[in-house]
Amino acid sequence: MLVERGVALARADGFVRATLWVVSDNPRARRFYEAAGWAPDGTTRREDLLGSPVDEVRYAHDLAVARGS
Predict the structure, then answer these.
(1) pLDDT per residue as tens digits for the range 3-56
(2) 57 CB-near residues (< 8 Å, 6+ apart)
(3) Of the candidates 42, 40, 17, 43, which has an alpha carbon nearest to the alpha carbon of residue 30?
(4) What are the Cα distances from residue 27, in Å, to 18, 23, 45?
(5) What's the rounded Cα separation, in Å, for the pair 34 and 27?
(6) How far is CA 20 from the centre of its chain?
(7) Whole-angstrom Cα distance, residue 53 to residue 67?
(8) What is the reported pLDDT for 65?
C-alpha cells in the first residue's frame, strides 16, 4: 500500500516517471516491485555499503495516466 500511495502522489503532482534502486542480488525485492508494475530500465551501478561493494539495478515506473482514465 505504501508503494501504491507513493506512485499515486507522484502522479498527482504531475510526475510522469519514477525510479528506484534495488540490490541486484535481491530476488524477493525485485519480484515485489515487478508485481507492482515496476521494471528494470537497463541502468546499473555499484555502491559502497558499509565498506562492501553492492551492485544495484534501477527500476522505473511509467506514471502517465492512460487516456480515458
Answers:
(1) 889 999 999 999 999 999 999 999 999 999 999 999 999 999 999 999 999 999
(2) 21, 22, 24, 30, 40, 43, 44
(3) 40
(4) 20, 9, 17
(5) 10
(6) 4
(7) 43
(8) 62
Element (H, E) at 10: helix 2-12
Residue 34, all three cell numbers = 515487478
**pLDDT over threshold 70, residue 66:** no
Q: How far apart are CA 69 and CA 60, in angstroms?
A: 21
What are the chain's domains? 2-62 (3.40.630.30)
Residue 42 is predicted with a pLDDT of 97
Q: Which residue carries 487516456 as its cell?
A: 67
